[in-house]
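From the methods appendix. Each design record in this collection lists the tokenized structure first, followed by the designed amino acid sequence. Records were kept in a plain field format so they could be parsed without special tools. The example shown here is representative of the layout used throughout.

RECORD:
FOLD TOKENS (180 positions):
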């Protein structure tokens, strides 16, 4: 399997991964989000990775710029969305996409990465509940999904030295994207 940064010519492939991975009723909204983020100047810098397996697009992950509303300037990102085509799920592709993305973000001096995702999946990849660590999501997270809002520290000592509300790109800054 190869994981590489996606480019403009990969757009159809990565959108097809997302279409296949998400339920039919969520697919159009995810596609709209991805296209919106890729074209949103407030999301830059964007890190979009594509996993290629068996000569086809197998997975995609997107990280966009975020910041913590505090007195400190902290480089942060939000992971949204991530998808693996259904027939290749359970083979570690998602985990490899996450690991490669976090490695590249750390090299870019990103300090924190946030995700609103499955609380049984993302902790396996180093994410911890963000709310209990002092980070509020861009929109309120329902109490029953509180642990779905997570953070990973890429620079030791960042958590504990900063807290506040996380601000995201304009394209992601809509309540409908913050329902888990």
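DESIGN:
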């Amino acid at each position: 399997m190869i994981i590489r940064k996606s480019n403009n010519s990969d757009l159809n492939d990565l959108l097809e991964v997302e279409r296949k991975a998400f339920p039919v009723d969520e697919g159009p909204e995810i596609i709209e989000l991805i296209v919106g983020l890729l074209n949103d100047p407030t999301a830059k810098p964007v890190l979009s990775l594509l996993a290629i397996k068996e000569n086809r697009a197998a997975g995609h992950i997107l990280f966009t710029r975020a910041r913590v509303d505090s007195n400190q300037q902290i480089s942060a990102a939000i992971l949204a969305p991530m998808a693996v085509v259904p027939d290749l799920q359970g083979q570690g592709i998602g985990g490899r996409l996450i690991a490669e993305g976090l490695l590249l973000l750390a090299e870019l001096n990103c300090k924190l990465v946030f995700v609103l995702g499955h609380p049984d999946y993302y902790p396996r990849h180093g994410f911890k509940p963000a709310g209990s660590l002092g980070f509020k999501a861009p929109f309120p997270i329902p109490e029953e999904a509180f642990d779905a809002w997570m953070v990973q520290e890429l620079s030791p000592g960042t958590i504990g030295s900063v807290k506040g509300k996380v601000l995201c790109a304009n394209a992601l800054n809509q309540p409908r994207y913050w329902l888990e």
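APPENDIX NOTE: The longest strand covers residues 56-69.
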